[in-house]
Amino acid sequence: MKALHFGAGNIGRGFIGLLLSRAGYEVVFSDVNKTLVDALRERGEYTVTLADDKQERIRVAGVTAIDGTDLAAVASAVAEADLVTTAVGVNILKHIAPGLARGIERRIAAGAGPLHLIACENAIGGSAQLKAHVYGHLDEETRRGADAVCAFPNAAVDRIVPIQHNEDPLAVTVEPFYEWAVDASVMFPDFKRIEGVHYVNDLTPYIERKLFTVNTGHASAAYLGNLKGYETIQQAMADDALVGEVRAVLDETGAVIVRKHGFDPEAHRHYIDTILGRFRNPNLTDEIARVGRSPIRKLSPNDRLVGPALLALEQGNEPDALAKVMAAALRFDYPDDPESAELQRSLADRGAGATLAKYTTLPPEHPLLLLALKQFEALAAELQS
Ligand SMILES: NC(=O)c1ccc[n+]([C@@H]2O[C@H](COP(=O)([O-])OP(=O)(O)OC[C@H]3O[C@@H](n4cnc5c(N)ncnc54)[C@H](O)[C@@H]3O)[C@@H](O)[C@H]2O)c1
Ligand SMILES: O=P(O)(O)OC[C@@H](O)[C@@H](O)[C@H](O)[C@H](O)CO
């Protein structure tokens, strides 16, 4: 069995590749990073280290890679795959779509069997977004053919994998915890189960709980920590006042999730405590630059800040703590991050109100934007004093 995985980066090697290899797949990575591709091809294996006191090392063997810029190679790999997964970043899905489309055409022409394509990105409906990009490259008749043999189950993936600073470009250190939930309701019957994957019939509660707790909490620690001059999540999480603010945010998202999906409030409190413990992991160094990366994506309407804040308002609650994190996101000034640079230019040119309206796509008078703007002004006053 062959799995084609797009993105041999941190989560690709440290989580998806590891689980697929353990499940008996030969894993073919597609990546545009030549160093990673060459090393995977030459060595055919890499090591994953678990970031706990034992520092267990796991050898992942039987892997190889293809050059993701080579459309013909990508199409061939898609034609031969028994499973396709991605972990490239939700905004990159459109760039892998042409190769997937050419591969799907070849599969249909050859009468190949059914194929699941699972986007393992931090986004609601990641695989559905991938499908829309791929279908944009198919004609009407091929789309009908693809409907019969391709399924795009949405997924939620959870494992903290920081940016790696190892001499070996393939070595990757990951937290021990992991969770991978996949929407089984759209999968073909009798699919091959992957050990470690949780198959569910309704993914929404899982992806919203994950994105609006792990990722909202993470973004809060990053943006509020950045305001205080911290460089890592571990530094930020050693600041009790800051942890109090992160908890206030997670109380707001927790109320939303518990009410919307009927989770047990006590179990959800325990979930939050576990996550705060994971952020503190002393065996990891996770940079605020990574966790806060792509602030425009993180301020978009369905993502980890605005998404739960809008739900809180719908439920009649004012999400002040979330609004403060939205305001802090505007202060995330990392010139090497293209979205941060664009946000800073917009802030300088248009001001906070118009910038928030542009990137959240909400009307300027929306109650959430008024809350965020109030928080932005309070932060500005605080920083001046
Ligand atoms: N790192 C984590 O803790 C974590 C956890 C859960 C989910 N995620 C999600 O997983 C995705 C990847 O995150 P990451 O941290 O592994 O990032 P990363 O930057 O380490 O990995 C992304 C990889 O995709 C490759 N890539 C870029 N364009 C490509 C293309 N056109 N074709 C093939 N490969 C391409 C990059 O070269 C890189 O190796 C993101 O959506 C992220 O939100 C990350
Ligand atoms: O990958 P992003 O940019 O969506 O979010 C940054 C981190 O919050 C994220 O990568 C977490 O480490 C991960 O989602 C944990 O499962």
What this model shows, in words?
This protein is α/β, with parallel strands linked by helices and 385 residues long. The chain has 2 domains: 2-202, Rossmann fold, CATH 3.40.50; 205-384, N-(1-d-carboxylethyl)-l-norvaline Dehydrogenase, domain 2, CATH 1.10.1040.10. Helix content is 53%, strand content 14%. The protein has 17 helices and 12 strands. It has a 6-stranded parallel sheet, sandwiched between helices. Helix 4 links the parallel strand 6 and strand 7 (115-119). Helix 7 packs across helix 10 (265-280), helix 7 (204-227) crosses helix 14 and helix 9 (240-261) runs antiparallel to helix 10 (265-280). The protein is globular and about 65 Å long. It starts with a strand and ends with a helix. The model has no long low-confidence stretch (mean pLDDT 98). The structure holds nicotinamide-adenine-dinucleotide (NAD) and D-Mannitol-1-phosphate. The site of D-Mannitol-1-phosphate has 10 residues, from helix 7.
